[in-house]
Amino acid sequence: MKKSIILTSFLISSAATSVAIASENIQLITQPMTTLCVNNDISSIPSGCDERFDTIQEALSYLDNYMIASDATVKIEMTEAPTSSYYTIYVNHPDGDKINIEGSCGSSKCEINFKSGQNGLVVENGNKLGSLKNFAFIGKIVGDKINGISVVNNSTIQMSEMEIYSFPQHGINVNNNSYASIASTTIHGNGKSGVVVSRNSNIVADNVQTTANSELGFIAQYNSLLNLNGKSSAIGNGLKGTKLIVFATAVCDDGNDSEVNLAGVWQDSSVYWGDNCQNYTEEE
Questions:
Q1: What CA–CA distance (Å, rounded) separates 98 from 69?
Q2: How far is the C-alpha of 232 from the C-alpha of 239, rounded, in Å?
């Protein structure tokens, strides 16, 4: 049965041009937890769901005319894998830090195949995503500059229990003053590298495995920080392991024996290893 969402209507001043939602009559979600379900059954709204949508992007677009109270949360829950390929998922809600996107497809991750030439998920231009969990994002090795997940231009994401593979460029790209927390995730078989952090950005990777990517497992470049914890690894990639360029830093510092194969350290870059971390160096 459909549950009611508790809303409050108010007007946004025309002077508030920084608000990303393109409507003057905005509604406020105050219900502590609102669940928007995504599945293939158009006949009814599943039990426990407030609304039902065909795709994750449709659920995000539904929120365009809502703001989310400081003590409220919206969960977008996929309950079965889609039967059609996806276009890029864009997260651009000003309250995105209160939005959690979660796969609940039984015992396996919810698999989403993306159309040729499409990124997987993009958070950009100062936006945030509260969490992304339990999906397999599957790309097509066609095109250029196509990533599984892109977090760019002062943006933030937290993700866990993900699998990202077969994208033309990188599995995860964090760029230009952005931040990503990545946990229990596998990135493999991408056209270039597994994980890239660039231009004053920061990644904390906990139990993240990169393997069988055509170039490197991890790249940190241009004054960025890569923090590798919890048995993270870069093994079996085309150019071996981790590359650091131009004042970048990699840290392995929690005593959980992260394994990182270094392809090399160039141009005043440095690597810091905790006492319990293993530095596996391979020569090119």
A1: 9
A2: 17
Write the CB contacts of 144 (distance below 8 Å, at least 6 apart in sequence): 168, 169
Question: pLDDT per residue over 167-183, tens digit each?
Answer: 999 999 999 999 999 99
Residue 202 CA to residue 284 CA, distance in Å, equals 27
Could you give the CA distance from residue 280 to residue 260 in angstroms, rounded to a whole number?
A: 6
pLDDT at 258: 58
Angle (CA) 183-189-193 rounded to 5° is 70
Quote the pLDDT of residue 190: 97
Least confident of 72-86, 155-169, 224-238: 224-238
pLDDT, tens digit (0-9, with 9 covering 90-100), for 50-108: 999 999 999 999 999 999 999 999 999 999 999 999 999 999 999 999 999 999 999 99
CA separation for the pair 276, 101 (Å, rounded): 34
Q: What are 29's strand-pairing partners? A: 7, 68
Exposure string for 247-275, b = 16+ CB within 10 A, e = fewer: ebbbbbebebebbbbbbbbeeebebeeee
Measured distance CA(213)–CA(169) in Å, rounded:
10
How many C-beta atoms surround the C-beta of residue 77 within 10 A?
Answer: 21
**Which residue has tokens 């005593």?**
255
